[in-house]
Design brief:
Elements (H helix, E strand, L loop, with lengths): L4 E7 L13 H18 L8 E9 L8 E10 L5 E8 L5 E10 L28 E7 L13 H17 L5 H7 L1 E12 L8 E11 L3 E10 L5 E13 L4 E2 L4 H12 L2
Antiparallel strand pairs: 1-3, 2-5, 2-7, 3-4, 4-5, 6-8, 7-10, 8-9, 9-10, 10-11
């Protein structure tokens, strides 16, 4: 691909596979974070000065245990708040598995840009205070989760949002027990994430989550992360996914009894 350079190459380790039996979303962000560091270093920019302000990610094809993959990165928006694009491919088949558009602050990037040929940003409504928010996480950022400059790593954010999913899904009956018994999981196909601030080791973190949209097999959740001491917003995530049949590896319609409870939860907002 003209304008792209390879910035990461790896394989899926068994401990990087989640309950949906594929590469966990937090691990994608860990690899994209490393790809960003390499890309900025190669561009002659200090990556320690950069911070992510927005990330738009589309998951297109699964990676599973032992799959090999590579990441290619390019500049798609130059200037004081540059945007870089990552494309993650299955290195064996060549299939595009995941794409990410990442907007940065703190660094400036000039030079030739590449026209973005991937998914466009779609406006998703952000639920207000009147939504039916569920307490979904109470945690503290740990030292071993810090990135190279001492902030909570991107994967540290995503791991917490994933935990928050378990609580909002359990609120309408899609509990761990239900999903294990019925051989279903949540397969994410879109993340829209915005960062308002940075979390650091020792910061106490709270997440509230709500159901923002319900389709046949699809669900959208919105998660808001805050500093538990100050109440300041840290990050927000709009997450679109489908209920996945773990054996057929295809979307499965949400059961009627769960749908009825989910609609009540949705209507409460």
């Amino acid at each position: 691909m003209n304008g792209y350079s390879e910035t990461f190459r790896g394989d899926v380790s068994p401990w990087e596979v989640d309950a949906t039996e594929h590469f966990t979303v937090a691990c994608y962000y860990e690899k994209f974070e490393a790809a960003t560091w390499r890309f900025l270093r190669q561009a002659g920019v200090d990556p320690a000065a950069a911070r992510t302000t927005e990330a738009l990610t589309h998951y297109k094809a699964e990676l599973r245990d032992r799959d090999v993959y590579k990441v290619e990165t390019a500049l798609i928006g130059s200037g004081e708040t540059p945007t870089i694009a990552h494309k993650l491919f299955n290195a064996e088949t060549g299939a595009l598995c995941t794409s990410m558009q990442q907007t940065l602050a703190g660094v400036s990037l000039a030079g030739q840009t590449v026209a973005w040929d991937g998914d466009a940003h779609e406006d998703r409504s952000i639920p207000g205070d009147d939504a039916n928010w569920v307490p979904a996480l109470r945690d503290v950022a740990r030292p071993n989760e810090a990135d190279w400059v001492g902030n909570l790593s991107l994967s540290g954010y995503i791991h917490r949002f994933s935990t928050a999913n378990s609580f909002i899904m359990s609120a309408f009956g899609m509990s761990p027990e239900y999903m294990t018994k019925n051989r279903v999981g949540l397969s994410t196909f879109e993340f829209q994430m915005v960062f308002h601030d940075q979390a650091r080791p020792g910061d106490m973190i709270d997440i509230e989550s709500c159901l923002a949209q319900l389709g046949g097999s699809s669900l959208r959740f919105y998660h808001r992360m805050r500093n538990a001491e100050t109440g300041a917003d840290i990050a927000g995530l709009s997450q679109f996914g489908v209920q996945l049949d773990l054996d057929a590896r295809r979307p499965r319609r949400v059961a009627d009894d769960l749908r009825e409870r989910a609609e009540t939860l949705l209507a409460a907002g």
